[in-house]
Amino acid sequence: MVQHLLTTNELKVEEIYQILEDAERFSQGLFWKPEKQMYTANLFFEASTRTKSSFEMAQKRLGLSVIPFEVQTSSVQKGETLYDTVKTLESIGVDTVVIRHSQDRYFDELVENINIPILNGGDGCGHHPTQSLLDLLTIKQEFGSFSGLKIAIIGDISHSRVARSNADALTRLGAEVIFSGPEEWFDYHSLSTSRFKPIDVAIKEADVVMLLRVQHERHQKMGSFTASEYHKKYGLTLEREKQMQPHSIIMHPAPVNRNVEIADSLVECERSRIFKQMQNGVYVRMAALKRSLESLGGGNQYETAYSERKIYSI
Amino acid sequence: MVQHLLTTNELKVEEIYQILEDAERFSQGLFWKPEKQMYTANLFFEASTRTKSSFEMAQKRLGLSVIPFEVQTSSVQKGETLYDTVKTLESIGVDTVVIRHSQDRYFDELVENINIPILNGGDGCGHHPTQSLLDLLTIKQEFGSFSGLKIAIIGDISHSRVARSNADALTRLGAEVIFSGPEEWFDYHSLSTSRFKPIDVAIKEADVVMLLRVQHERHQKMGSFTASEYHKKYGLTLEREKQMQPHSIIMHPAPVNRNVEIADSLVECERSRIFKQMQNGVYVRMAALKRSLESLGGGNQYETAYSERKIYSI
Amino acid sequence: MVQHLLTTNELKVEEIYQILEDAERFSQGLFWKPEKQMYTANLFFEASTRTKSSFEMAQKRLGLSVIPFEVQTSSVQKGETLYDTVKTLESIGVDTVVIRHSQDRYFDELVENINIPILNGGDGCGHHPTQSLLDLLTIKQEFGSFSGLKIAIIGDISHSRVARSNADALTRLGAEVIFSGPEEWFDYHSLSTSRFKPIDVAIKEADVVMLLRVQHERHQKMGSFTASEYHKKYGLTLEREKQMQPHSIIMHPAPVNRNVEIADSLVECERSRIFKQMQNGVYVRMAALKRSLESLGGGNQYETAYSERKIYSI
Q1: Which of B12, B85, B179, C44 gives the lowest tally of CB atoms within 10 Å of its CB?
Q2: Beta bridge partners of residue C176, listed in sequence order
Q3: Is the CB of residue C278 less than 8 Å from the CB of residue B91?
Q4: Which conformational region is residue C29 in: left (phi greater than 0), alpha (psi within -120 to 50 degrees), or beta?
């Protein structure tokens, strides 16, 4: 059966661990390629630098050939549906597609009749499983395990693709998740209110301070705040950073609004894992692609151990 | 002499058969590559998913390296002419270009001084030779030969790049072509009126029901019809499909307007060759590229028979 | 230390000669590749055909893998800064970036914390070092050396990225540079007025007539001239071409405004090196990339002499 990667929620704990383990091995120089030449396409219906270029890098490191696809110059402009677009790519021989789309659960209309694996690069305000997985990898590299950790997810929770799926996955993996930020952006319906804490408490208690991006492009306006008010009230200011525990780390999915969610000078400070997260994004996507391509059968893919010539070192 | 592929009309019958034969061999796993690394570029001045991605796939399967070109970020924005753009690509070492352009016969101003093969990916309302060739390949795969077949081309004939060239090629190959659809979209000047038949007659008689896309983007409005009126009057409805002969097939160049030219549920029905056409598009374009690249001389390209490791299976 | 290529001015004379020599060897078939797979990205925030496709070609000839980046579909649309964009690409494993940006000296904010080489593909009205180097290569191929040559740079000097840096480099290499064109476009502040000459004098004296593009996109209007007035007053007309010395050549960075800077029929005349310049652009960019990639260490790159199989012939 074809292995899509659509949401973190549908991954069993052992599947999450398998992906993280493969990603870790890729970070150490694992060399894996499909036996025959395979083709892929990246359909990004929303702007992206990190996710798109990270998938491209992962695909190229696995030796996949990427068929370019740009929404603005495609037949989507003539009204072609997402289903027909993906079916077309399947027909011409594309083996797997990555899709980002503004519609929540766009993939529900695809999975029945599309016979190639779909990797979700973000759907609406819904899911972003590879972002979630790279966050998990970054935390695991730092602390070895998830059990007993306290993760504070802070900011625009209602619009965040990762807040909910990260919370779910982290809890299943044994961590404790607390939320903070503007209460009006907190979703009382789907998240237990008992875990909402004031920002200064959250920051003191957390092993991981995970900031979320204020998504100007999804808000009509930035709540009732100016950028500097948001920073003062809910951002990681220089003062708040000093309240963090010595071993605690800072994460952010980026792109960062500097001096809004986080003080400019903290983006690359010693605690920050923000660019490390991006690095890990490549390894996690290599692992996710490997999982999906292996599900296509064949099974003759070869794999060699990390050699002294570190081919995949970043 | 450099072998362009500009129109189907200028291809001799034996050239058509040669391309179809090569395409058929590619579909069976023929492996062909130019001896030295060759470079190509795809200049699409109009939106495309199928043609562009199909050419990209064909190029990659032949081992060509594709130099990206996007109209919106090119010097075309500074007023550079098509000729100077193509001459530039020739100068930097591109070996062959694919062009789609809204101007009828855009290539007339190029062929004199451009010394690399041009493959026409569609010009205005004029020609689209690789679409025509993939239609021919699909028919040939189905029926073995063209002689005695009856092909009904139905729909927006006046704006169709392929209606006229398909009609010409099919007639030369021994098939009989009939037209149907709205009479106001039928071109009495360039096509014999004697071959125009009412839709319900055409569908009963045809071995191949070839539907054409209603090109919203070329019409000011969709004639005097709404979409559902068009479907009822000229579309392949569920009722009309039942009138087709048992062995007859459905074709459409896509993108399909579902429930306009054809009922939604027929797009992937057993008779439909719509996605098969797309698959064949890759093989036909591989054959067309091979023909053009061979014309550049060298002749040392290597070719191996289909091996048990089916490299080009789609 | 990482070797950027930001401006021609900062290159020492011996560095210029080294790049030209490598470029010349690439034009003769030198084969050079980095030992391990390397990755690159081209960030063009302004339209380009020549520079972008020429860099792509150079990258592919060196075996680099290109990670696509399109400004309009990137997180730049969400307000991400240039620094964060480049840092992201560095984080995911890109080894070198090419950047064109409308801001003068955009690179000043990058060089401190970016640890991969930046190749400047043009900044504002400032610099365009690879254009400058390809001009130098074209002149050197023609005349063997620079000493004693007279180069007339004619046209829109104030907006030209190359006028100033070409003038500087050519003077340092032993050539004499004179300027001509509309006096109102001449920059009396930064260029010595003593070298400004009327167009008909400049054209008679010059060994190289280097025309500059009238940059409609940077001017509010084309000075006080219509296109045909400009051509008559400051363009290379058919009559003026006859006044050139028998051995003199014509250059232009392109895209050419035909019948503005130069008469249409002279663009591809015997004296013209305009398309030769584009060809040389690939070799110069290969040399510049080689220089930057070698600065990343490793040093195990292999290099083979020109073999009978001329791999890099254009």
Answers
A1: B12
A2: C150
A3: yes
A4: left
Distance from CA of B281 to the nearest CA of C (A): 25
Is some CB atom of chain B closer than 8 A to the CB atom of A93?
yes
C162: alpha, beta or left? (left if phi > 0; alpha if psi -120 to 50) = alpha
User: SS3 for A152-169, per residue?
Assistant: EEECCHHHCHHHHHHHHH
Q: Report how far residue C70's alpha carbon sits from residue B53's, in angstroms, rounded to the nearest whole number.
A: 18
* B189-244 pLDDT per residue, tens: 666 655 889 999 999 999 999 999 987 655 545 566 788 999 999 999 999 999 99
Within an 8 Å CB–CB cutoff, is residue A265 touching chain C?
no
Asked if C108 is an interface residue toward chain A (Cβ–Cβ < 8 A), one would say: no
Distance from CA of A119 to the nearest CA of B (A): 19
Of the partner residues C50, C276, C314, the one whose CB lies closest to the CB of residue B93: C314
Nearest to B286 by CA among B294, B296, B297: B294
Decide if A49 and C93 are in contact by the 8 Å CB cutoff: no
> What amino acid occupies position B98?
V
Joined together, the tokens standing for residue A248 give 């605690």
Query: For residue range C146-198, what is the model confidence (pLDDT) as tens digits?
Result: 999 999 999 988 888 888 889 999 999 999 999 999 888 777 666 665 588 99
Q: Is the ipTM of this complex over 0.85?
A: yes
Which residue of chain B has the CA closest to A87? B275
Compute the C-alpha angle A232/A238/A244, nearest 5°. 105
Two tokens, residue C19: 């790049």
Chain C residues touching B73 at Cβ < 8 A: 44, 47-48, 52, 70-72
| % chain B with pLDDT above 90 | 75
Main-chain phi, psi angles of A35, to 5 degrees: -65, -45
Per DSSP, the three-state class of A89 is: helix
Q: What residue ranges define each of the domains in chain C, with the CATH number in brackets?
A: 13-127+279-304 (3.40.50.1370), 129-276 (3.40.50.1370)
Terminal CA-CA length for chain B: 33
| Cβ <8 Å between B255 and A89 | no
Kind and range of the H or E run holding C283: helix C274-294
- Alpha carbon distances (Å) from C34 to C99, C281, C294, C299: 21, 20, 8, 8
Cis peptide before B34 (omega within 30 of 0): no
Nearest beta carbon to residue A74 from set B49, B68, B216: B49
Which residues of B sit in the known binding site for carbamoyl phosphate?
50-51, 100, 128, 131, 254-255
